[in-house]
């Protein structure tokens, strides 16, 4: 019923394509006069289901090429997602990752595990070994939290120094004990950046080193 109190009126609809895990669907979106139409079910300007976007990001991070992602989406959902769409989604994902990676460290972490790990990554169709420095802190309740991860840094003195200074700049202070393998670059840096903290050799690394030379 039309009246002076009403702010908007129904005025037909328009078609909107939406990609779901079951394929493309066409939605009849109501059009209103006087006010914009909004729904909590589907966000404004969204063209794909959230699970679809997550799958696209996971495929790319797993090393699947952009062209291969296009072929997979067409085979699964009947719609070929453009390379630009994949790039934009990955850009958003990396922004969230970088925000988390550089977050302030407001908690207290008396014990911190540090290590350098090597992972395989697909880059331009070529598999490469990538070095990542990682720090895991233990909070006052005994829970572990990843405090930092830096890709492409070697396990030398300069890399460890830059890594620990980065953690300290973000708020990592009052560390009582660092735990890690017997890496001399790490040991020298801990003494420089956190002179009051002590160091303990990681038992897991110690056992691995022993078992690698002891006859079975």
* Percentage beta strand: 25-35%
Rg, alpha carbons: 26 Å
| Percent helix range | 25-40%
Residue stretches low in confidence (pLDDT < 50, at least 5 long) are 44-48
Number of helices: 6
* Order of strands, widest sheet: 5-4-3-6-7
- Inertia-based shape: elongated
- Category from helices, strands and their pairing: alpha/beta
State the end-to-end CA separation: 88 Å
The number of domains is 2
Largest sheet: 5 strands, mixed
| Number of beta-strand segments | 7
User: H/E element string?
Assistant: EEHHHEEEHEHEH
User: What integer is the average pLDDT?
Assistant: 78
Function: Required for the transposition of the insertion element.
GO molecular function: DNA binding; transposase activity
InterPro entries: Transposase_mutator
Family: Belongs to the transposase mutator family.
Structure, explained:
The structure is a single chain. The longest helix is centred in the middle third of the chain and has 19 residues, at 83-101. 36% of the residues lie in helices and 30% in strands. A hairpin with a 2-residue loop joins strand 3 (111-123) and strand 4 (126-138). It has a 5-stranded mixed sheet. It is of the alpha/beta class and 216 residues long. It has 2 domains: 9-100, no CATH class; 111-213. Belongs to the transposase mutator family. It comes from Anaerovibrio lipolyticus. Keywords: DNA recombination, DNA-binding, Transposable element, Transposition. This is Mutator family transposase. Required for the transposition of the insertion element.
